[in-house]
Every structure is written in C-alpha cells, then in structure tokens.
Amino acid sequence: MTFIVPPSAGQKVPDVGSVREVAPTAAAGLVESPSVAATKFAGLLTVGAKSPDATLFAPTPEVSKLQQNLATDHATVDTRYILAVTDTFRCSPSSR
Predict the structure, then answer these.
(1) Domain ranges of the chain
(2) Is residue 62 within 8 Å of 12, Cβ to Cβ?
(3) How far, in Å, CA of 33 to CA of 51, rounded?
(4) Are 40 and 56 in contact (CB under 8 A)?
(5) In this structure, what is the dihedral angle of CA atoms 31, 19, 93, 48, given to the nearest 10 degrees?
C-alpha cells in the first residue's frame, strides 16, 4: 500500500522560491543537467546522509531540520501497528 501525505501546514519545508530554470546557454557549463541534480537531491531527501550523493550537496538548515523531523517521526512510530514508514521524495514531471 502506498499513501501520499503532503506536509502539514506547520511543517517547514525547504524554500524553493529562488529556484529557476537554467537558460540553455548556461546549462552547457553545468556539471550535470538540472533533472539529474533534482533526482539526486530527491534521493538525498529520501535516504538522508547515507545517500551516495550526499556529498554533492550542502544542505541548508531547513533541509537538515526536515531530515531531523522525519527521523524523529520515524522513531516514534508504534511498531505494534505499523511495520515500517518510508518517506520517498521524487521530482515532479514538470521539474524534469
């Protein structure tokens, strides 16, 4: 079974207000495409510091706090009723 649960109104999520598309002329100088970087960042959010791509990013305090909150939430799950909780972050098709 899979459930998608959006963050609650009080949950702080990383600000993406300054994120913008890269102009094609500027994209040529990037180490990798924005879609590949977004996929790796989603993997970092899903796996955490153990992600093989963790060293590629310098997490902001908001991202670190989000990861701490997720870990705390997982630690408080009543395993008598819920076997496991996994948070999976994915890039939306519009970000590719």
Answers:
(1) 31-95
(2) yes
(3) 19
(4) yes
(5) 70
What is the per-residue pLDDT for 1? 38
Distance of CA 38 to the CA centre of its chain: 9
* pLDDT tens readout for residues 5-58: 566 777 777 666 666 666 777 777 778 887 888 888 888 888 888 889 888 888
User: Which pTM was predicted?
Assistant: 0.60
Please answer whether residues 89 and 70 qualify as being in contact, where contact means their C-beta atoms are separated by less than 8 angstroms.
no
Q: What is the pLDDT of residue 26?
A: 75
Q: Are 87 and 70 in contact (CB under 8 A)?
A: yes
Burial of 93 (0-12, 13-18, 19+ CB in 10 A): exposed
